[in-house]
Amino acid sequence: MIVVTGASGALGRLVLDQLLALGPAGRVAAAVRRPAALDAHAARGVSVRPADYGEPGSLRAAFADAERVLLISSPELAAERRTEHHRAVVEAARAAGVRRLVYTSFLGADTEAGGLTEAHHATELLLRESGSATTVLRNPFYTEGFVTPELLRTALATGTLATTTGGRGLNTATRADLAEAAARVLVEDGHEGAAYDLTGAGWTHPGLAALLPGVTHRDADPAEEPPGVPRFLNSLVRSGALERRTADLARLLGRPATPLADTVRALLATPAES
Description:
Layout: E1 2-5, H1 10-22, E2 28-32, H2 39-43, E3 47-50, H3 56-62, E4 68-71, H4 79-95, E5 100-106, H5 118-130, E6 134-139, H6 149-158, E7 160-163, E8 169-170, H7 175-187, E9 195-197, E10 203-204, H8 205-210, E11 216-219, H9 231-239, H10 248-253, H11 260-268
Parallel strand pairs: 1-2, 1-4, 2-3, 4-5, 5-6, 6-9, 7-11
Antiparallel strand pairs: 8-10
Helix pairs in contact: 1-7, 3-4, 4-5
């Protein structure tokens, strides 16, 4: 049995969908705080089990027949609390005899121990010390966090894509690609002990503007923030911190990562919320 924790979130639901596409539903279980949130997946044959990162007993019950578990990182923002949630999953998986634990970490967590990576770095240490077979997926930022419908529609309406990123590159990936990679790692053998640094095809905001008819890119002053993207993310891009590229995601997918043009096309085809 493959059990996915945190499966009612945006990434978790996509992982479940990919697992259903790769094999029989009877092999897939979802461990979530609110099982009713996954009624649609339960109707497709997924075993939906109550589990809470803050209640170790519920995790042990959810993992009772699990061979492989995907630990999707806790949504808890406080690093200490988040790490405790992850520790509970690691210990419950070990107690249940889980053969392999897969963890969605964050790019750079192997070398950086502060800020965005603090809890991920601590969790990777927990995994190494656990004695269990593990696989680490170091995810980048989601493309959807930068390329939003609001950003695209504003650019099309004004004819200008104004950003404060200095034209620097981004190594983001789509949730769908990362979910597919996680599902493949869960169903395939040979990933024990591996750690993958995942990045997408890479892109820039000038390149994004070129995909929008009649739109030009303008490099704005850092004090002038575009809508829809948090200030600290633009600062990271401007520093060049998101330009690292690897081939790990494409290797896991067996194909190139989804190009930016496909993401833009899909977002523009989505009706605007009224």
